[in-house]
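Pipeline run #58 for the internal structure catalog. This entry was flagged by the ingest filter as a single-chain record with no existing model, so it goes straight to prediction. Upstream metadata was stripped on purpose; only the residue string is passed forward. Reviewer on rotation: M.T. Logging verbosity set to normal.
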Amino acid sequence: MISPSTKLVCLLGTPLGFSFAPAMQNKAFEAAGLDYFYLPIECDKDSLPDILRAIRHMNFAGFAVTKPLKIEIMKYLDHLDMLTKQIGSCNTVVVKDGKFVGYNTDGVGFAQSLSRRYGNYTGKRMFVFGAGGASRALCFTTIANGISELYITDMYEAASQALVDDINEQTEAKAVLVQQADKNLSVHVGECDIVVNASGLGMTPHLNESPIEQHWLHPAQFACELSYNPPKSLFLKLAEKAGCQSMGGLEMSLIQGAHQFHLWTGLPEPIEQMRNTLQILMQN
């Protein structure tokens, strides 16, 4: 039961109906014996300032940020950790002494899950569909772990251009902008070792869409999907038909969610407990 002493945590973004985060985090709070409660709050860029003003005056331990606010939230934060500042995107905020402190757990979640499933990716080339907040996080974090060359495309060319410029200015990796109308788009995809769907196509409300066609891929490639709901997006289905090894977004979600829990509570990361909760949720 929520009381005046209950520490609140929320998820900001839209749409949120697909997210398992509230159930996953609340189960973790309960298992740890914490008087915390996690709730979803759908909002857009226009309503975000008013909601943040309210959060500052309420009993919040922090909040999570998802599409389409991971970059927009940056302008409202009081402090950033160094990695978040470089990434230019934030998905986790801790409220400390009335101040908003920003972190990014997306990149760590993706990089660790990719290492577990793919192995050592030092020197590999990666194609990324999407240049939003999650894409920025995974690009910078995998570069730090060895990715040497990236090809990036997004329906909003300004976003992909900004990401490419930031990578080339701030890292030793090579980043290349690929326009979605480029006749060689499929060629660039086929030349990469790892192909990542960070576009949002394949998740609500774009369930029957994919950024690729099956013949663009081949069995030597590894396909990564950031979404975990549905468990297998059209992108992953096409990749598997093309003979690719693949990875959905579940493990990334677990790792980054467990790290969020730690940032908000100071307690150890409950990955296995969260994994059990997610498996139950996905079966239902």
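catalog note: Residues 107-248 form a domain with the Rossmann fold fold (CATH 3.40.50.720).
catalog note: The longest strand covers residues 7-13.
status: ready for reviewer M.T.
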